[in-house]
Amino acid sequence: MSRESNMKNITLWNRFLSWTRKRLSEHDLMLILSLIVGVACGLASVVLKLSIEYIHHSLTSWFDGFDYNFLYLIYPGIGMLLAMLFVRYVIKDNIGHGVTKVLLAVSKNESKIRPHNMWSSLVASSVTIGFGGSVGAEAPIVYTGAAIGSNVARKMGLSYKNMTILLGCGAAGAVAGIFKAPLAGVLFTLEILLFNISMTSILPLLLSTVSATVISYLFLGDSLPFECTLSPFTMHNLPFYIVLGLFCALFSVYFTRTTLWLEDRIKSIRNPYSRWFISAAGLGLLIFLFPPLFGEGYDSLSVLLNGGEISFEGETVLAFFLHKPWSIPIFYLFILLLKVFSMSFTNAGGGVGGTFGPTLFVGAIAGFVVARTINLFFANSPFSVPEQNFVLVGMAGLMAGVMQAPMTAIFLIAEISGGYELLIPLILTSTISFGATRMVEPYSIYTKRIAKRGELLTHDSDQAVLTLLKTSDLI
User: Fold this and answer.
1) Which residues share a beta bridge with 136?
2) What are phi and psi of 350, to 5 degrees?
3) For burial by CB atoms within 10 Å, which of 266, 322, 324, 464 has the most?
4) Residue 84: other Cβ atoms inside 10 A
C-alpha cells in the first residue's frame, strides 16, 4: 500500500512539474522559486537567532554580575559536547565550516547539498553558540540557506546552472535574513560563492534577499542589528583610518593563518572525546578570564558602538589589572589575539559555528584598540578620534581582509548599523586592509582550506592549485 501511495505521489509531482514547464518560462519559474527560497531562508534565520537567544538567556539571565561566573568554565564545553553527539550519532555527517562546504558543493558536487543540511546546522549551531561557543551563526545559516536553494532546485528538476543560481539565492537570503541586509546578501554571494555568475542572474538574488529581509523584519522587529551612536566623519582623521586599515590587514593574516594552523593541530588528536575535552578546557579557561569571548560577543560590540566601555568588575579575576589607562587597550589586545583560539577550540572540539561572526568581533576590538591608543597618545588634543566610529570601521576592515570581500564588508557594515555617513572611511580602510592582506595571503579563510586540494573551481582554481600545491602533493 505504501509503495502504491509512493508511486501515486511521484506521478502527481511529475504532472505538477510538467504543468509548470508548460505554463511558466524558465525565467518566471526562477523568479518564483527565488522568492520562495528567500522566505524559507528568512524563517530559518529567525529560528536560529531566537533559538540562540533563548538558550543564552536561559543559561545566563540569573548571573548576578558581582561574582566570577565559574559556569563560564563548563557551559561552552557542554554545548560543544551536545553538538558533537548530535552530529556524530544523529546526522553522521560533517557539517562544520558551512561556507567552505558551499564552495565545495558548487565546484565538486554539481551544487547538490544533502537534505539534512536544511535543518541540521540550525540545531547544532544553536546549541553550540547558545551555550557560549565562541563562534558565529552566519556560516551555519549560509549553509542552511544554500541547502534550501539546492534541494528546492533538485526537487524541481532544474539544470546545474539554475541549481547553482538557486543555491546562491539561498545563501544570499540567509545573509540578508540574519543581518537584515539585502544588498550585503547579494554581494556576499557574488564575491565569495558564485564569482562567475552572469549579471542576468542578479534579479533572483535580489528577490531572495528582499523577501528574507522582510521576513526578518516581520518577526524580529524594525531595529537594526547594531544600533550605534556615531560621530560625524572629519577629514583630519583620515590618516588614522589608513593606520586602522594596515592594522586590520596585519590581524587578517594572523586570523587566517592561526585559525587554520590551530584547527589542524587540534584535529590531529584522533580520539573525538579527547579532542573535545582539551578544546572545552581551553575554551572554558579563556572565557573565564576574558568574558567577552563568551558566545558571539555581539553584546560587547553594542556597548563599544555606542561609545561605552565594557565593565569587567566582578566578571573576571583579571579586573584588578584594569584600573590604569593603558591597561584597557592592552587587555583588549589580548582579547583580540585570543578570540582566534577560542573560535578554533569551539570548531575543532566538536562545536558547529563559523568565522563570520568572530571576524566582525575581532575587527571591532581592533578598531577600539587603535582608537583608544590614539586617544591616549593625543589626550586633550585636536587629534583625538571617536572610538565608536573606529569600532564600526574596524569591523569592515577585518572582514575585507579575512574574507577577501571588500564590497560585502563595506555595505554589510553600513546596512547593519545605518552608518552610511562613514562610507568614506569604510571604503578606505576596507580597501587598504584587502589590498595589504592579499599581498601576503592571496586566499580568503574559506578558499585557503580547499585550494590546496585543487577543488576550488569558482575562484581561479588553476592559479590556486599552482600556487598552493607542494612538490610532495604531485608525487
Assistant:
1) 354
2) 125, -10
3) 464
4) 23
> How far is residue 97's CA from residue 331's CA, in Å, rounded to a whole number?
29
3-state DSSP assignment of residue 134: coil
Could you tell me the three cell numbers for 348? 575543532
For residue 143, count other CB atoms closer than 10 A to its CB.
Answer: 31
Residue 173: other Cβ atoms inside 10 A: 40
Alpha carbon of 160 to those of 23, 30, 153, 203, 363: distances in Å?
22, 13, 9, 18, 37
What is the rounded CA–CA span in Å between residue 22 and residue 29? 11
* Nearest in space to 226 (alpha carbons), one of 281, 179, 295, 296: 179
Cβ atoms of residues 54 and 227 within 8 Å = no
How far is 247 from 381, CA to CA, in rounded Å? 23
Which among 123, 116, 219 is positioned nearest to 211, based on CA atoms? 219
For the packed helices 120-130 and 75-85, what is the interaxial angle rounded to 10 degrees?
160
Contact 409, 397 (CB under 8 A): yes
> Helix axis angle, 138-155 relative to 120-130, nearest 10°?
170
pLDDT tens digits in sequence order for the chain, 475 residues long = 466 566 656 677 667 677 677 677 778 889 999 999 999 999 999 999 999 999 988 887 766 554 556 777 889 999 999 999 999 999 998 888 889 899 989 888 888 999 999 999 999 999 999 999 999 999 999 999 999 999 999 988 888 888 999 999 999 999 999 999 999 999 999 999 876 667 677 899 999 999 999 999 999 988 888 888 888 888 999 999 999 999 999 999 999 999 999 999 998 999 999 999 999 999 999 988 888 898 888 888 888 888 777 666 555 666 656 667 777 888 889 999 999 999 999 999 999 998 989 999 999 999 999 999 999 988 777 788 999 999 999 999 999 999 999 999 999 999 988 878 899 999 999 999 999 999 999 989 998 888 766 665 555 544 444 443 443 343 4
H helix and E strand count, the chain: 20, 0
User: Cell 543560481 identifies what position?
Assistant: 165
DSSP letters of 407-439? HHHHHHHHHHHT-GGGHHHHHHHHHHHHHHHHH
Q: How far is CA 332 from the centre of its chain?
A: 21
First to last CA, the chain: 56
Cell of 19: 504543468
